[in-house]
Write a structure and sequence with these properties.
The protein is of the alpha/beta class and 354 residues long. It contains 14 helices and 11 strands. The N and C termini lie far apart (86 Å).
C-alpha cells in the first residue's frame, strides 16, 4: 500500500473513532459547555442543606443533568447539613455572587427560622431563581379519631391535639396560624419531642394525638390506606382531586367563607403564599443582571424539560415549576405574612418550650 493510501485509511479510522466516542458520550456531556451562561468548562456548586436521600436531595439530583444541559456547566451537588437546614442555607447566602453557587432551599422553613432568630436572613434576602414545587399542607386525622371532619372540629369545645417535630418547624407554623384563622387556636394543643416526622405521624395513626399538618404528597399513601383522614387543605385550591379520598375536602378559604370569617381571607392568602415558596432554587444576592437572567431562563428550561418531568414522575416527586417572575408576588406576601404572624408564632413556640 502506498503512502497516500495508508494516510487515507488512517484518516477514515480516526473519523470513525471520534464518531463512536460522540455516540457513547453521556447525554449531559453532549450538551455541556454549549451556549450557556458560564463560558467554557465551568463548574457550578449546588448546595443541598439536608442529608443525602431526602426529598430536597432527590430533587437536586434529578434536576442536576438538565441544568447542566441547558446552562452549559458541570453541576456538583454538595450536602451541607446541620441545624435543620440552616448551615447550608447560610453558606449559600454567603457564597460569592458569581453564579457558580446555587442550591435548593426550603423557602417556608427559612422564613419561619428567621422569625424566631435561628437565621439572620429571610427568604427575600436570597436571589430566587425559580421553584420546583410548592407545599400543599393538609390537616389529617387518625383513622380512629373522635372527630369526623373539620366541621366537627369547629363545633366541638374539646381540645385539638396536634403533633409537631419541633417548635421551629414550618409545619408547626402552618398549624398554629391556620388554627388561629379558623378560630380554634385556643383549643389547639401541640405535642412535640418526636425524633422525626414518621414518629409524629404514627402518634396520630395510633390515636395518641388528633391531627397533623402534612404536605399532601408525603401522606398520600397513608390517605389511600385509610390510616389518615384528610379534613382540610391549607391551600387556595383543592388538592389531590385525582384521588377519590380527597373529594369534598374543603380548603381553608372555603372553611372561612362558610363560617363567616371572610375578614381572614387576606391573612389566609399570606399563609398559603408561604407554602408557594417552599421548594425553591436560590443563589446569593448581588448576581450581575445579565448572568442572573440567563440562570433563571436556563433553570426554567431545565424544570420544563421532558426528561426531567419523566424522571420526577418515576421518582414519585411532584413538580409545579414557577419562574422567578411568578414568585415575586408570593414571595412578598409570604415574607410580609411571616412578620404579621410572628407574635402569634413566637408565643406558640414559647408555650411548648421551643
Amino acid at each position: 500500500m502506498g503512502l497516500k493510501g495508508f494516510m487515507k485509511k488512517r484518516f477514515v479510522k480516526a473519523v470513525a473513532v471520534v464518531g463512536v466516542a460522540i455516540l457513547l458520550a453521556p447525554v449531559g456531556l453532549t450538551h455541556a459547555f454549549a451556549a450557556g451562561c458560564y463560558g467554557e468548562k465551568a463548574t457550578v456548586n449546588w448546595i443541598v442543606p439536608y442529608s443525602p436521600g431526602g426529598g430536597f436531595d432527590t430533587y437536586s439530583r434529578l434536576i442536576e443533568p438538565f441544568y447542566e444541559k441547558h446552562a452549559g456547566a458541570e453541576v456538583v451537588v454538595r450536602n451541607v447539613t446541620g441545624a435543620g437546614g440552616i448551615n447550608g442555607s447560610r453558606e449559600l447566602f454567603r457564597s460569592k455572587p458569581d453564579g457558580h453557587t446555587l442550591g435548593i432551599l426550603f423557602g417556608s422553613g427559612v422564613i419561619v427560622a428567621n422569625l424566631i432568630g435561628k437565621i439572620e436572613q429571610t427568604l427575600s434576602d436570597f436571589t430566587l431563581l425559580g421553584r420546583i414545587a410548592p407545599e400543599e399542607p393538609v390537616w389529617a386525622l387518625g383513622k380512629d379519631s373522635a372527630y369526623k371532619d373539620i366541621w366537627h372540629i369547629l363545633k366541638s369545645d374539646k381540645d385539638i391535639v396536634g403533633v409537631t417535630t419541633g417548635a421551629g418547624s414550618a409545619s408547626f407554623f402552618d398549624n398554629v396560624v391556620s388554627a388561629e384563622l379558623i378560630g380554634v387556636y385556643k383549643r389547639y394543643k401541640a405535642v412535640t419531642g418526636f425524633k422525626g416526622s414518621r414518629q409524629a405521624t404514627m402518634a396520630v395513626i395510633r390515636n395518641e394525638a388528633d391531627m397533623g399538618d402534612y404536605n399532601y404528597s408525603s401522606i398520600r399513601d397513608r390517605i389511600d390506606s385509610g390510616d389518615l383522614r384528610p379534613v382540610m387543605s391549607v391551600t387556595p385550591e383543592r388538592v389531590g382531586q385525582d384521588n377519590p379520598k380527597m373529594k369534598g375536602v374543603p380548603t381553608i378559604f372555603e372553611v372561612l367563607k362558610k363560617t363567616g370569617r371572610e375578614n381572614r381571607i387576606e391573612d389566609a392568602k399570606s399563609l398559603t403564599s408561604v407554602d408557594k415558596v417552599a421548594r425553591v432554587i436560590a443563589a446569593p444576592p448581588g448576581i450581575e443582571p445579565k448572568l442572573l437572567k440567563c440562570m433563571e431562563d436556563k433553570l426554567f428550561a431545565a424544570m420544563n424539560d421532558d426528561g426531567f418531568k419523566a424522571a420526577a414522575k418515576k421518582a414519585k416527586r411532584p413538580i409545579d415549576p414557577a419562574n422567578a417572575e411568578e414568585l415575586r408576588e408570593p414571595l412578598k406576601l409570604a415574607v410580609e405574612g411571616g412578620k404579621k404572624f410572628a407574635p402569634l408564632y413566637k408565643k406558640a413556640v414559647a408555650k411548648i418550650g421551643g
